[in-house]
């Protein structure tokens, strides 16, 4: 930990180090962590996955967007504390990864990475203003919204070409290539972790899990729980083998599990049960959004995580212990609550 | 009324009766009523309609979801007063009826009923937090949102099959089987009332109207006004005969008319005129949403009621009498207001 | 200016003139101006464009809806100051122009103009309540929402027929008739101004620019900047020649540029840069919405302007000069801000 202290001193003394620190924390904040070493390992994970799958532009796009988004926040004089915690870096980073993953590598794509990263920061400031009303964070929705706009907009321009997995088509009922439980599931679970950053690589998933572990064991544990639960639910419901094999049912569940189970509430038994119901909701929302977006040929990105987590965070104060006096005259509540005494 | 008093005493003394009372009021709250007898008659109506149309799973699904949703609210320590008024029962009940109506009767359907009911309660808590900001209720939107997610999600899973009326298709301009005014309209109006609970049965509609009558004559009157106005407007605009014959243009209008005309404002002449404009808006929003959802092959549910009622409730304070002194220097307003004197 | 004073005295003395004044200001408020002469010139522009393109019903629909919407606001006892500034006129006016542009001239179309104008005022009151929470205006979104409902609803009714440019179809990637920079661009830019009011006529655009000029040189300047930037960006990105030639990439950009550059912030260097990024976002949002709406066969209307301007207004306070003491301990911010001194 003395290394950590030395880094913190450097960051306080030199502006260049302060900026690098903010960017590294930005990479970590995708997973809701505030730790530069976690961010470094995540960037290594993205680099490994992006080179391994033959898409080097993804790590380049992610890094460019991380820097552009953070600089935009500085130019717009955003809150200094949030800036230093990396809260203006994580959504632009994902926009950079998303645009380079789903658009073909042409000059306009790189312009979209830069403009998109700057706009993502504006959207982060805008949505934070809106959601502050109810005490919930904007999560990765600035990335989702901006990247949807860029991908959907790309259809209208001859100088940009989509490389999304499926062309626009009307939704059809679930096919016959149903995924089955097998030994490969461990790899799909790790790919589920790496798909948070739009790369499909079990090694990247492993590196990212180590990154979580150096900051928070609970976060690492819930990441694994989320990836396993999301993948098993999808297999149990009869999802297609192709999507399960790419880890696509894991990444939203990973984020929901970390957010609801480890970061935004204190870990506990009831919290874990609530987080698991949230993971179920995430899988269903992801399936629903896949249907909704089929006619437009764009992916759900992390919108299922965002929607499910918002819905499960908004009533969150009901899960905290309630002072005894509030429940006096309240037979119904004590009766059905698990483990309640006889009155 | 002494029966009512005796019931209330039983509910205060015995937790089992208290729970049944909360569930019955939950059934009544779909129609914005807080009365266990109304709820009982509504459940009888759903049972009659569901058996009559050969879909017994609808009443079973509605009852299971009503219980699961209410128990979930208890476990989450939701507000006791709202719980006792049935405010955590009505949306889950509709989710249960919706899932069993629009998914085929397979094991996964029943899992979706239970999970959907629990999630509907979480969504009710979440949306109530959001809409409290503007002093309007979430209405049946928790049901709409959760059921849309479940139906749209079902496309992606081989173990669930949709039984929605129309498969995904691009919208087409209104056809030639235009409905015409005839003697059968009375039945379509009553079916409009029963369609609130996703059953098509004029007898059920009659039983439900009696249920309204035992609690509030104004609510029963506005339910009839809404069903008649919605059906006549649809015929007047040239809607298809098939949809009119199933009572599908009535149920959203029924709910808007009750909400705007009888429950959420004091009944009066201006209020009735405003509620009628709200019914017109409901019919147009329903037609629009039918077009929007055509490519996805899922029904509008009660979203048209919710959207129109929100839009007409948000500015509601402008309809209450305004203190005289506010209007002093205000020639324009007094000039054009109906019945305004010359000064 | 003595003419202006005389008119103001007449409006204060006679209710008829007060009403005409409120309607004229309503026409001007589409462009975010509060000036009856600007409104008069805009109405002249719409009339010229509507007659010139052989669609006289557009100016009639716009005028009818302007009057109906303003009268509805009076009947609902809306805020007198807002009424006098024309804030309840501009969205209905656009609804009238939109419905008569995109529905065929049949009796139901005129009923939709009247009902739509009244509902637009209700929606204006509703959305103003919602957006007041964050201190941003509803802009033209009441028009967009109501007109989308009417056009989408028209599909379901045999007595209404859509005349939108394209029938429902799945989106396809950008074609080969890419627009090129040429002498005609000046006309497309002026048509971009007139398309704010759904008419395609460079003469109308010129008259409307004069209308802006009599009230605010900054607004006129930013209108030109927005129309030029929107059109050039669309050509640069490779948009289709057909849409560029109709001025369709200008009108949303015009409104965003006026709102962000001239009206809702004080004009300055940083403000202009921010407004330009807002124009870029507007063009991309417009392309995205064009894709989203393709399966439904309805136009984007001014939704791209509304969405981009909301996103850029919500964090606006960050652009105002920040008191020095807030930034004390804040090396990162001063370091990267342009023109920042050495400490």
Order of helices and strands of chain A: HHHHHHHHHHHHHHHH
Mean pLDDT across all residues of chain A, rounded? 90
Cα-based radius of gyration of chain A, to the nearest Å: 21 Å
Look at the helices and sheets of chain A and give the structural class. mainly alpha
Count of alpha and pi helical runs of chain A: 16
Kindly, what is the distance between the CA atoms of the first and last residues of chain A, rounded to a whole number of angstroms? 50 Å
Shape of chain A: globular
Low-confidence stretches of chain A: 318-343
Most extensive interface, residues per chain?
A-B, 48 and 47 residues
* Multimeric organization: homotrimer
Helix content of chain A: 55-70%
Q: Per DSSP, what share of the residues of chain A sits in E-state strands of 2 or more residues?
A: under 5%
The counted number of beta strands of chain A is 0
Mind summarizing the main beta sheet of chain A? none
In short:
Chain A contains 16 helices and no strands.
Protein described:
3 copies of one chain form a homotrimer. With 343 residues, chain A is mainly α. The first copy, chain A, has 16 helices and no strands. Chain A has helices spanning 2-13, 15-29, 36-52, 57-75, 80-84, 90-102, 107-132, 141-154, 185-194, 202-215, 217-237, 241-245, 251-263, 269-293, 303-313, 331-336. In chain A, helix 4 crosses helix 7 and helix 11 (217-237) crosses helix 14. At the B-C interface, helix 14, helix 15 and helix 16 of B face helix 2, helix 4, helix 5, helix 7 and helix 8 of C.
């Amino acid at each position: 930990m003395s290394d950590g202290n030395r880094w913190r001193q450097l960051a306080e003394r030199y502006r260049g180090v302060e900026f690098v620190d903010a960017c590294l924390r930005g990479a970590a904040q995708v997973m809701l962590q505030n730790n530069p070493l976690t961010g470094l390992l995540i960037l290594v994970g993205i680099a490994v996955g992006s080179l391994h799958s033959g898409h080097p532009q993804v790590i380049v796009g992610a890094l460019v967007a991380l820097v552009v988004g953070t600089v935009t926040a500085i130019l717009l004089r955003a809150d200094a504390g949030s800036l230093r915690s990396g809260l203006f870096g994580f959504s632009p980073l994902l926009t950079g990864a998303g645009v380079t993953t789903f658009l073909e590598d042409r000059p306009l794509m790189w312009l979209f990475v830069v403009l998109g990263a700057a706009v993502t920061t504006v959207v982060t400031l805008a949505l934070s203003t809106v959601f502050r009303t109810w005490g919930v964070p904007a999560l990765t929705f600035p990335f989702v919204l901006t990247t949807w706009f860029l991908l959907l907009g790309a259809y209208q321009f001859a100088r940009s070409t989509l490389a999304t997995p499926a062309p626009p088509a009307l939704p059809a009922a679930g096919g016959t290539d149903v995924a089955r439980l097998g030994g490969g599931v461990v790899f799909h679970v790790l790919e589920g972790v790496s798909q948070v950053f739009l790369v499909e690589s079990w090694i990247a998933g492993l590196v990212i899990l180590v990154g979580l572990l150096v900051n928070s064991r609970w976060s690492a544990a819930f990441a694994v729980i989320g990836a396993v639960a999301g993948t098993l639910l999808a297999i149990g419901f009869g999802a297609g083998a192709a999507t399960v094999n790419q880890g696509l049912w894991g990444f939203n569940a990973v984020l929901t599990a970390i957010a609801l189970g480890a970061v935004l509430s204190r870990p506990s038994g009831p919290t874990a049960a609530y987080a698991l119901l949230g993971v179920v909701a995430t899988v269903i929302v992801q399936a629903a959004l896949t249907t909704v977006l089929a006619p437009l040929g764009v992916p759900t990105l992390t919108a299922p995580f965002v929607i499910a987590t918002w819905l499960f965070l908004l009533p969150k104060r009901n899960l905290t212990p309630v002072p005894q006096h509030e429940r006096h005259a309240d037979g119904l509540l004590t009766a059905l609550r698990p483990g309640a005494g006889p009155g």
